Structures are given as structure tokens and as C-alpha cells.
Amino acid sequence: MECKLCKALKNEKDKYLYEDKDIVFLPTKTMKGHNKRIMIVSKEHIKYPSISDEREWVDSFIKFCKEYFNEEPTFALCESTYATIPNHWHLIATDWKGNVDIEQLHYTPHRAIKTNVNWRPNNG
């Protein structure tokens, strides 16, 4: 049986937000009540990339997410502790507005990352 993430990489190219030779950023299949929820996925079916690759990939994902989530003061970059597809490397970035998995989000190892240190509600 083909991995669901491998299948998504093949069949959902029109949903790609970013792509390079190693990684893809795309919306998650389920939003779980969030306004924005995206993932970074390795193109190669691997469970663990090299430390240097992972560092480079995550840095580029964070940079992208700071723009993507720019209407929020922070976003959560979640570890794959509770991943439904644990054998294909990926991480999830999400806003804090979920009503379905917000409790799980608090228990999942994550980093809260500022999008803009000068952010204020209503730009005021």
C-alpha cells in the first residue's frame, strides 16, 4: 500500500505552496477547525533526514510560515509525536484557532513562533 504522503505528493501538485528538489509545502488534508494548517513534507519517503537537511528544511519552512501566518502574532510548529503517518518525514504548522485538536496541540511538542514582533491586533 502506498504511503498517503507519497500519494499526496503525486496527486496534489496543484496545491503546492512551495517546492524545491527535496521538500514541498502544502495544506494538510484535514484542517481540524483551524483557519490555516500546512505541512512540510520530504519528497523522498524517509522517516529521518540528516540533521543538516532537517535544519535547512525547517529554517526555510519557518521563513515561509512567518509570511503565510502573517495575520497572526504566532503560529505553532508541531513535532510529529502524534503523526498519523509516522514513517514519512513531515511537520505541521498551524494557527491557534482550532476547535477540534486545540487540546492535543497543547500536549504535542511544538514551538510557538512569532510572525512579526511588531504585530498588533487590528494593526493599531
Q: Main beta sheet, described?
A: 6 strands, antiparallel
- Would you report the number of β strands? 6
The CATH topology assignment is: HIT family, subunit A
Mean pLDDT: 84
Series of H and E elements: HEEEHEEHE
Classification by helices and strands = alpha+beta
Structure characterization notes:
The chain has three helices and six strands; from the N terminus they run αβββαββαβ. The mean pLDDT is 84. The chain has 124 residues and is α+β, with helices and mostly antiparallel strands. A six-stranded antiparallel sheet has the order 1-2-3-5-4-6, covered by helices on one side. It has one domain: 2-Layer Sandwich (HIT family, subunit A), CATH 3.30.428.10.
Descriptors:
124 residues; alpha+beta; six-stranded antiparallel beta sheet; 3 helices; 26% helix
Topology record:
Elements: H1 4-11, E1 18-19, E2 23-27, E3 37-42, H2 51-68, E4 74-78, E5 90-94, H3 102-107, E6 110-114
Antiparallel strand pairs: 1-2, 2-3, 3-5, 4-5, 4-6
Q: TL;DR?
A:
With 124 residues, this protein is of the alpha+beta class.
